[in-house]
Design brief:
globular; Prepilin peptidase; membrane; mainly alpha; single chain
Length: 278
């Protein structure tokens, strides 16, 4: 997505935001259909009257406002989640492109890598929605995230690093070991609790996190996820909106940790190194 060099910055931001709106509409449907085991074929329809929606019913944000949040045919209300996810995706696409473009670890002209990061954002949004709504992280998205992660490692090693194929194979092997190492604590929790304390989707996600980020950044992403999850859980208990046995999807917190480390790995690792002196 070669946006920055072609258009002035304000137009680039607007264009990317609009692209994000349309992607948000698609990712919303993708999260629901993958989680419920439905095929991606077939047109969108109203959940109440099952009437097939036309193109002018599916324009992100605009259609929701024009129809006042109701089905054109049966007047049943649409969930507010639809426009919110579209807006969220548009904002995340802009933020992701900005973070990627201004990362000290990424050359500004590495547009393929910036596009891979947008792919990360899209996949993570689907994972977040699926786990939040259904407490499921679809395997299809795990595979997509893995492919994007491997693509990033290959690009940074060959194109940016200029290393040969023999070194790349060693690098991939090391990253696979990093993934297994980061996955190990969550796998242990899963086995000890027999799946009650941790879903296996979280275990698989931890492996991909370690493979993408590396050993220390992978564990830091886990730590960020646990800290944020603990804070949210504590707030729910204090406000009496949750109980000790209330199930909370852990995937969204892992996703936030992964997203944070993708773009702020250097800053966070340096901060931790200063604290612990290594």
């Amino acid at each position: 997505m070669f946006i920055e060099p072609i258009f002035p910055i304000p137009y680039s931001i607007f264009l990317l935001f609009v692209v994000g709106l349309f992607f948000g509409s698609f990712l919303n449907v993708l999260a629901d259909r993958l989680s419920m085991g439905k095929t991606m074929g077939g047109r969108s329809m109203c959940d109440s009257c099952m009437h097939v929606l036309s193109w002018n019913d599916l324009i992100p944000i605009v259609s929701f406002l024009i129809l006042r949040g109701k089905c054109r045919y049966c007047k049943a209300p649409f969930s507010i989640q639809y426009p919110l996810v579209e807006l969220f995706t548009g904002v995340i696409f802009v933020i992701t492109w900005y973070f990627s473009l201004h990362s000290i670890l990424i050359p500004p002209d590495s547009y393929l890598l910036h596009s891979i990061h947008l792919g990360f954002a899209a996949v993570l949004i689907v994972m977040l929605l699926a786990d939040f709504r259904y407490q499921i992280i679809p395997d299809e998205m795990q595979i997509a995230l893995l492919i994007l992660g491997v693509s990033k490692i290959l690009y940074t090693s060959i194109v940016i690093g200029g290393v040969g194929l023999s070194v790349v194979s060693q690098t991939m092997g090391m990253h696979a070991l990093y993934g297994l190492s980061v996955m190990a604590p969550l796998l242990l929790v899963f086995l000890i609790t027999k799946g009650r304390g941790m879903g296996f989707g979280d275990v698989k996600l931890a492996f991909v996190m370690g493979l993408i980020l590396g050993l220390l950044p992978g564990f830091l992403a886990l730590y960020i996820g646990f800290v944020i999850g603990g804070i949210v859980g504590g707030i729910l208990l204090l406000t009496k909106k949750g109980k000790r046995k209330t199930k909370i999807a852990f995937g969204p917190f892992l996703i936030l940790g992964l997203y944070t480390m993708i773009f702020f790995e250097n800053e966070i690792v340096l901060f931790v190194s200063k604290i612990y002196g290594f």
